[in-house]
User: What shape does this take?
Amino acid sequence: MHFDSIPAHDLISLAVGFLGFVTAFLSRKDRLPAWARKWLKRIGSERVVDAIERAAAICELTPDQRRKQAIIYLQKLCIRELGFPVPASIANLLVEHIYQVWKRGRR
Assistant: This one.
């Protein structure tokens, strides 16, 4: 099979399909899973940003320690203000996701 024998409309169809796949993949890249979006909706992104900013204000911490501190702040905040605990794994995912958005906004 030679490349010359493939009709042009087939190549165009293949290219359009491939571009559609790449576009769909890239648009989902920054999205949270559905179950994580439910948690974020209940908590609110402003509370996550508040926890990140509180942890960022502590200068003597390393970036890893700030992330851990932001998770602790978020967990305490949810218990105090919302009345329900947030598992550490979910708090970590939300902090990481919102941190990326927050970091882009600060530049």
Observations:
- The chain is about 75% helix and 0% strand.
- The mean pLDDT is 84.
- Helices lie at 8-28, 34-43, 45-56, 63-82, 88-106.
